[in-house]
């Protein structure tokens, strides 16, 4: 294994941003519980509320509409529920429609029973099929309750950006609720809950350089809210009980603020590095397949198949080269399996695929090293094939 490691798995988790680290170190001296009324508690509360403003700014929302959670998975389980309230009036959501490429946290359907969850197919280009969604909503039984639609803004494997603005219009016309998983989009594409037209956004701290263990459910308003997932002392305005993880929340807020700094310049530079990577891979192995290359993607993600190389074999080979990459989503306890995203796009999932995801500290030298590792791995594949 190489002595110096190269980390190219930012979609799984981003390294802790220096601003988040510094904010958390300062926060370690805050003694109070954010829910205590004494001076120490008020200091802690002020720090949490400052972080709430920072996350709200990242998502184009009002601070009062940010609910802190333990992460995106909790936020998804909180909002994907049949039970809502509009003010004091209970609302029933009778069916959940999710795209076929959603993260497992959404694919599991939250608090909906499986019979009340339907998948929206995607087109071969990896984008959700809006015509099918429109037909599904037209056929929805309105007498049974409202429809809910959940579509991610950017896919965690391919990086393909979904037409959520167009989907929002269809959902609004059907009188439904629209949930957008913005975990992989935050900090990489402009993010504004009002411009998107979503009722709820899901964001995660550790995907943008904050600490693990913090996330948020962001709403467009505060009248429409899901039934709480966690009951207890009524923290987060009664939406999520339990003492807030102030340390992680403060780091989350600092990372959210840092994500807006030099946004366009940073992402343009990262996109250039990704293009350099893909050009180098294609030169080394002309048969490499880069999924979603011709569509709109987040700037940092390359999801590719090298024919004849299994996902788990490729991931181990890169690891032995000292390069940390992924075989897709790092969300299943380290398991490497067939990609449901590739299957939904009409590709043979048995082909396998690998994901390289870049970040703000990735350099041209890093990319050249990754290309060299790729070339060696591709070469060994050819030798193995010749030997066989």
Short summary of the structure?
This protein has 388 residues and is α/β, with parallel strands linked by helices. It contains 12 helices and 14 strands.
The main pleated sheet reads as: 9 strands, mixed
Mean pLDDT: 94
Tell me the total number of β-strands.
14
Strand content: 15-25%
Q: How far is it from the N-terminal to the C-terminal residue, by CA?
A: 26 Å
Q: In angstroms, what is the radius of gyration?
A: 22 Å
- Please trace the helix and strand order, writing H or E for each element: EHHEHEEHEHEHEHEEEHHEEHEHEH
Low-confidence residue ranges: none
Number of helical regions: 12
Helix content class = 25-40%
Principal-axes shape call: globular
Look at the helices and sheets and give the structural class: alpha/beta
Name a few traits of the molecule:
single chain, 388 residues, alpha/beta, 9-stranded mixed sheet, 3-stranded antiparallel sheet, 12 helices, globular
Describe this structure in words.
The chain is of the alpha/beta class and 388 residues long. The chain is 37% helix and 16% strand. The chain has helices at 18-27, 39-59, 72-79, 104-107, 130-139, 164-173, 193-196, 246-259, 263-284, 311-320, 340-344, 364-387, and strands spanning 6-7, 66-69, 83-86, 89-99, 117-120, 146-152, 177-181, 200-204, 215-219, 224-226, 289-290, 301-305, 323-324, 354-357. Strands 2, 3, 4, 5, 6, 7, 8, 9 and 10 form a 9-stranded mixed sheet that branches. A 3-stranded antiparallel sheet has the order 11-12-14. It is globular and about 65 Å long. The relative contact order is 0.17. The mean pLDDT is 94.
């Amino acid at each position: 294994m190489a002595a110096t490691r190269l980390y190219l798995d930012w979609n799984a988790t981003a390294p802790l941003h220096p601003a988040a680290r510094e904010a958390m170190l300062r926060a370690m001296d805050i003694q109070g519980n954010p829910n205590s009324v004494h001076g120490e508690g008020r200091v802690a509360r002020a720090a949490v509320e400052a972080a709430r403003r920072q996350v709200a700014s990242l998502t184009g929302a009002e601070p009062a509409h940010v609910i802190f959670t333990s992460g995106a998975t909790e936020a998804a389980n909180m909002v994907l529920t049949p039970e809502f309230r509009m003010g004091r009036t209970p609302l029933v959501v009778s069916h959940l429609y999710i795209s076929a490429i959603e993260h497992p946290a959404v694919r599991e359907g939250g608090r909906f029973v499986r019979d009340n969850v339907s998948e929206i197919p995607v087109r071969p280009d990896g984008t959700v099929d809006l015509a099918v969604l429109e037909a599904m909503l037209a056929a929805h039984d309105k007498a049974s309750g409202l429809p809910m639609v959940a579509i991610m803004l950017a896919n965690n494997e391919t990086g393909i950006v979904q037409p959520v603005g167009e989907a929002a219009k269809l959902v609004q016309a059907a009188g439904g609720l629209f949930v957008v998983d913005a975990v992989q989009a935050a900090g990489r594409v402009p993010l504004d809950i009002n411009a998107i037209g979503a009722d709820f956004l899901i964001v995660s701290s550790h995907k943008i350089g904050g600490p693990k263990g913090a996330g948020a459910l962001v709403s467009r308003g505060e009248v429409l809210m899901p039934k709480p997932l966690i009951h207890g002392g009524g923290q987060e305005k009664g939406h999520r009980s339990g003492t807030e993880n102030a340390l992680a929340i403060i780091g989350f807020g600092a990372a959210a603020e840092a994500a807006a700094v030099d946004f366009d310049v940073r992402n343009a530079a990262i996109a250039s590095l990704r293009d350099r990577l893909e050009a180098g891979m294609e030169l080394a192995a002309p048969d490499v397949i880069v999924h979603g290359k011709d569509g709109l993607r987040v700037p940092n993600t390359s999801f590719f198949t090298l024919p004849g190389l299994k996902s788990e074999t490729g991931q181990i080979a890169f690891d032995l080269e000292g390069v940390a990459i992924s075989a897709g989503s790092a969300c299943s306890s380290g398991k490497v399996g067939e990609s449901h995203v590739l299957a939904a796009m009409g590709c043979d999932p048995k082909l396998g695929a690998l994901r390289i995801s870049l970040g703000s500290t990735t350099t041209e030298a890093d990319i050249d090293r990754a290309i060299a590792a790729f070339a060696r791995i591709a070469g060994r594949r050819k030798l193995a094939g010749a030997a066989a």
